[in-house]
Amino acid sequence: MATKKMFPKYDLITIGDSTLDVFLDIDEATLSCELKKEQCLLCFDYAEKIPVTAVVKVPGAGNSSNAAVGGRRLGMKSAVVSIVGNDDTGQEIIAGWEKERVDTAYVSVDKKRETNYSTVLNYQGERTILVHHEKRSYVLPKLATTKWVYYTSIGEGHEKQEKQLLRYLEDHPNVKLAFNPGTHQLHRGMDALKPMIKRSDLFIVNREEGERLLEVGRRPVHNLLFNYHHIGAENVVITDGPKGSYGTDGNRIWFHPIFPGPMKERTGAGDSYTIGMLYGLFQKKSIPEAMGYGTANSWSVVQKIGPQAGLLKKTELLQVTRKFSKIKAKKQNHLKG
Questions:
Q1: 100 with 69: CB under 8 angstroms?
Q2: Does the pLDDT value for residue 217 go beyond 60?
Q3: Using an 8 Å Cβ cutoff, are 330 and 309 in contact?
Q4: Residue 37 falls inside a structural domain
Q5: Residue 40 lies in a domain
Q6: Among 71, 74, 127, 200, which is most buried by a count of CB atoms within 10 Å?
Q7: Is residue 320, in this structure, part of any structural domain at all?
Q8: In the structure, what pLDDT confidence band is assigned to residue 134 with cuts at 50, 70 and 90?
Q9: Are 202 and 277 in contact (CB under 8 A)?
Q10: 70-119: per-residue pLDDT in tens?
Q11: Domain residue limits at 105
């Protein structure tokens, strides 16, 4: 008698915190930058009322939520593992996921605390984020089978859930993992994150995060890529904002420039790149092709306010990559130890 073949229930399960993001457009501020503009301060007049030119509320933001919505728009069967507060905002977030057809079976409601909240100050296209995370008790629900897990930004006290996730991945060796650590995860340091990095099929951070985690100071991006691949990540991507992105499979390095276009606000640029990249790998595309998908998704998102308004559907993603078909990932030097 033939054994019935079991197919994964999901294409993607994302794990991380969700928030209500409130975007404030401001004009009356100044920037104070170092000579090379590597570090800038956003300055206001103290004890003054600062006019806000526009307010946009985005319930259901946060890395994992952005990825779940982005994956669903690209046609992936996605579910989100997250906690919302016992308030109207939490119910609004769940309703938003359901409208996007993201499975909410793994969403729980914290009956004692409210939903996480972020205020995003948008000035000259760049954002400064004020974040408030409620204290949570993180427990991984019993997950169905999936093709990909995306593990990302989450609050303090997540270590137990992370160990449970590692056990799930050990029990399901065919499940691929994308890991994009958030602030609280990065603060735990390299030794704590090594098991998760080692298990990653895709490890992705921005340049500043990559340098901070390795505690090496300013280094060439190629050096960062090599270090994370050496730890065990199969594919590594380092994003460098408007300068583009770098990726490696351990044998070759590629650099992908950004696509030219207007930039309105950068929140969600990294999340949209990551889900575009993950979708490319899901579609069995090469690393440089997948980087192009990530670049296209990010190009669209930064032209709108908030992290989700510009997330592309599959047909739109292909249209953007065709539009910029002459801008491709370029092979760099081979990795050297």
A1: yes
A2: yes
A3: no
A4: no
A5: no
A6: 71
A7: yes
A8: confident
A9: yes
A10: 999 999 999 999 999 999 999 999 999 999 999 999 999 999 998 887 78
A11: 10-18+62-112+135-331
- For tokens 């090594």, what's the residue? 194
Q: Which of 103, 144, 162, 123 lies closest to 40 in space, CA to CA? A: 123
- Beta strand 202-206 pairing with 235-239: parallel
Query: pTM score, two decimals?
Result: 0.89
How far is residue 198 from each of residues 98, 161, 164, 220, 221, measured CA to CA in Å? 33, 17, 16, 22, 19
How many domains does the structure of the chain reveal?
Answer: 1
CATH number of the domain to which 155 belongs: 3.40.1190.20
Residue 165 lies in a domain: yes
- Look over the chain and give the mean of its residue pLDDT values, rounded to a whole number: 89
| 189 pLDDT above the threshold of 50 | yes
> pLDDT at position 108, please?
96
Phi, psi of 127 (to 5 degrees): -120, 145
